[in-house]
Amino acid sequence: MTSLQAEHTTEPPPVDATTHVIAVVGIPLVSAAPSADGWFLSDFYLFNHLFRGLGKSQLWYTGIEPDTLVEKYGEFVHGSPFEPRRVVLDRDQRPHDIVVRPETTLRDDFLKGFRAILKEKWHVGDRILILAFAHGEPETFGLMVGFDELRREPVRLFPGDIRTTVAEAELEAWPHITLFSTSCYSGGWVQTSILRDDGNVSMTSAMTAAPSDSVSESQPRSVSGRFAGSMFTSAVVGQLLREADLPQRPAPDELRSYQKLVADIKFTLFNEIDVRFPTEPTFRAQGERWQDSFRHRSGFDPSLYQERYESLRLVPASDLRPFGDRSRPLDKITNAEVKA
Hints:
Order of helices and strands: EHEHEEEHEEEHEHEHHEHHE
Distance between the termini: 40 Å
Number of strands: 12
Largest sheet: 7 strands, mixed
Strand order of the largest sheet: 5-2-1-6-9-10-11
């Protein structure tokens, strides 16, 4: 395993006044149930709520109308079944800035949107945040975004698609790009040489839920059978919200560096969310700026994220076992213990 400074770490996605946010969730309707792959959608809609209206521009791509999800499944929640969770999509909590495209063209439409940001909206000094929520595959590290009806197989988004799109835009400088992904094997986007220059220097930043050789983890199944987002997103958002506990104008020694934030997120994953968390999140820093503070990079008052998060409706805990007693199978829990 490489050192902390080199690869294996993570941080909340940076969003500031110069950021262009572009996100895609690749889960098809056939597997979108909260009891199946709906946890990717829970991540997608949580970030959509937290980031809505921030930065210079935003594009949020999906192959499923939010109304269809609500009509079919009622609600999507986010968080651990052992704690109260938040409703990120239901009849009252619906986004109005979603771009819905057919599964057959979802990847290509996403890349068109990315290209449009580069050619029409980006200026030197701007940042681009790419959020990708989809199944990943080993070796090629492709993210399954859409479905090819003729070939009867998923359409994949590869690291090379990002590099090619940037190259075709013929910009005066390489843009600052951060990728955030909860996909299996997404650490391959950290390690691939495709997103490094001739000197093997990183051309992007990347925050990923799993190494290149491992699957990522959703939250555990609740008593009602739902998977409510990923553990990785819960840890990252948790640290994003904890920034609000700092003074409005903190002293320099009160600001957390990336490296300290990394340690805090890992502690959350391994000690608060699940002591058996099996994978090592990965990160790559563009420019090796490890000592910058998160608040300096974000440019927004962290209390804004806290207010938005707390505005989401609460759903009671589903599994009432204490933290140290979570090995008991769900089928052994009595009805009296079930709240949701």
